[in-house]
Design brief:
The complex is a heterodimer of chains A (114) and B (111). Chain A has 114 residues and is mainly β. In chain A, 0% of the residues lie in helices and 50% in strands. In chain A, a hairpin with an 8-residue loop joins strand 9 and strand 10. Chain A starts with a strand and ends with a strand. With 111 residues, chain B is an all-beta fold. Chain B is globular and about 40 Å long. The chains are: A mainly beta (114), B mainly beta (111). Chains A and B meet through strand 4, strand 5, strand 9 and strand 10 of A and strand 4, strand 5 and strand 10 of B.
Chain lengths: 114, 111
């Protein structure tokens, strides 16, 4: 597609439920990132994919968070047993992976845990 | 420990005047810096970048200045327009992948 596409755009879920957030990167982009922005905070790095592998998962806040990428394209971020502090906007981004590249963001998935 | 700091959470300027947004970093390994602009309920959009081998990069009304010795960069918008009102994020990277962001500065340009 023309840009990074994320779904759902908004999700309200009950505490303790699992959620899946999907990201479709820009076609041909080998690098994919997940970031999170909580209220009043900056953008927090979660995980980075190069192709289907994740060389850097250092930002995942807990083992309730996981992500995968298949076919070098679509990625899914899964949050198990959601907590209220998971409420944030989850942003996916992609880039060509070349040095000095520009990272392009999607519109974000707004997650509210009630 | 915040490696990228935007110490002004907000800035208000008059239309037509200059807006100056500041950013400081602590990691000397950072060698590429970017500014992103974010409107409410939208994802950040890339605005302008600068490599550490330069001290200035200009694109239309937007200019980014880098002072490596001070570990400081700034974004100048001249002239400012009401449509520029948004949150501006400074970001830095020392590799070809992970960006570290500041907390953002809310710019309001008053007509």
């Amino acid at each position: 597609g023309a840009g990074v596409s994320q779904s759902p755009s908004n999700k309200v879920t009950e505490k303790g439920k699992d959620v899946e957030l999907r990201c479709d990167p820009i076609s041909g982009h080998t690098a994919l990132y997940w970031y999170r922005q909580s209220l009043g905070q900056g953008l927090e790095f979660l995980i980075y994919f190069q192709g289907n592998s994740a060389p850097d998962k250092s930002g995942l806040p807990s083992d309730r968070f996981s992500a995968e990428r298949t076919g070098g394209s679509v990625s899914t971020l899964t949050i198990q047993r959601t907590q209220q502090e998971d409420s944030a906007v989850y942003l996916c981004a992609s880039s060509s992976g070349l040095n000095g590249n520009t990272i392009y963001f999607g519109e974000g998935s707004w997650l509210t845990v009630v | 420990d915040q490696q990228v700091k935007q110490n002004s959470p907000s800035l208000s300027v008059q239309e037509g005047r200059i807006s100056i947004l500041n950013c400081d970093y602590t990691n000397s390994m950072f060698d590429y810096f970017l500014w992103y602009k974010k409107y409410p309920a939208e994802g950040p959009t890339f605005l302008i970048s600068i490599s550490s081998i330069k001290d200035k990069n200009e694109d239309g009304r937007f200019t980014v200045f880098l002072n490596k010795s001070a570990k400081h960069l700034s974004l100048h918008i001249v002239p400012s327009q009401p449509g520029d009102s948004a949150v501006y994020f400074c970001a830095a990277t020392g590799s070809n992948y992970k960006l570290t962001f500041g907390k953002g500065t809310l710019l309001t340009v008053n007509p």
